[in-house]
Amino acid sequence: MKALHIAATGMKAQELNVEVISNNVANMRTTGYKRQRADFQDLLYQNLRRMGAETSTTGTIVPTGVQIGSGVKTAATARIMSQGTLEQTDKELDIAIRKEGFFQIQLPDGTTAYTRDGSFERDANGTMVTVDGYAMDPGITIPDDARDITISADGSVQVIDNNGNQVNLGQIQLARFVNKSGLESIGNNLYLETEASGAAQINNPGTAGFGDLQQGYLEMANVDAVTEIADLIAAQRAYEMNSRIIQAADEMYSTTTNIR
């Protein structure tokens, strides 16, 4: 009886589904987090009677056949890259991206990572860095005597110096990808480029295909609590139904073994 194995694959699939949902819920307040969704595929089929086979010398064709599936497997945990809501913080170095694009971050090993988390700080040298101390790429350094930091929608960073002059410190650039769902998550709100994502396309905010910037705002996670609760209930019920199938198959085995 294959029902035990088939139902077991269903229970494993729903267990993973709940893990994905729990990670979404855990990151509901994570800046720039993008929710994931578990996608499933059916497993190979055993053909007991193949459709289209001839059943007589006159060419009679089997219209449907007999196929027995062997369960379910996890095909992907797709990341939903939709826009999260923007929350006002009034902090000078908080930056939200509206629509397409990622900030470029220089990792200690020289690798470029990408993020939607725009909560930047200044390190001891005045360089704009993430909360983990990783510098923005291209780097922007803010002098000690600078005041009234202004980050425009097109990414230009300007300050007022001690003499009251407006000084341009640099240009924030964004990266975008043909398949942004193909980026690899490495934690700390960072992604890495992969062959699936395609090569990064770099340009200034506000240019064709790129979003613009909003200073004093942060993009919140795109996790909807109601959707996650509904998905959790559906996953729980599917898990229960698969467990009932295992119980039913066990009872059928028991009936067979008790035949005298």
Please describe the structure with a list of short key phrases separated by commas or semicolons:
single chain; 260 residues; alpha+beta; 2 domains; 5-stranded antiparallel sheet; 3-stranded antiparallel sheet; 2 helices; 20 strands; 32% strand
Structure in words:
This protein is of the alpha+beta class. It has two domains: 3-40 and 74-81 and 223-257; 86-218, no CATH class. Helix content is 22%, strand content 32%. It has helices at residues 3-26, 225-257; strands spanning 36-42, 45-49, 66-69, 72-79, 86-88, 95-98, 102-106, 112-115, 121-122, 128-129, 135-136, 147-151, 156-160, 166-171, 174-176, 184-187, 190-192, 201-203, 212-215, 217-219. The strands form eight sheets. Strands 7, 8, 11, 15 and 18 form a five-stranded antiparallel beta sheet that branches. A three-stranded antiparallel beta sheet has the order 12-13-14, with no helix packed on it. Strand 13 (156-160) and strand 14 form a beta hairpin. The protein is elongated. The model has no long low-confidence stretch (mean pLDDT 92).
Silhouette: elongated
Task: Measure the end-to-end span.
Answer: 20 Å
> Low-confidence parts, pLDDT < 50 over ≥5 residues?
none
Structural class: alpha+beta
- Topology order in helix (H) and strand (E) letters: HEEEEEEEEEEEEEEEEEEEEH
SS summary, helix count: 2
Compute the number of strand runs.
20
Helix content: 10-25%
Radius of gyration: 27 Å
Sketch the major β-sheet.
5 strands, antiparallel
Quick check: average pLDDT?
A: 92
The total number of structural domains is 2
- What fraction of the residues are assigned to beta strands by DSSP? 25-35%
Domain Flagellar basal-body/hook protein C-terminal: 214-259
Subcellular location: Bacterial flagellum basal body
Protein name: Flagellar basal-body rod protein FlgG
InterPro entries: Flag_bb_rod_N, Flagellar_basal_body_rod_CS, Flagellar_FlgE/F/G, Flg_bb/hook_C_dom, FlgE/F/G-like, FlgG_G_neg, LlgE_F_G-like_D1
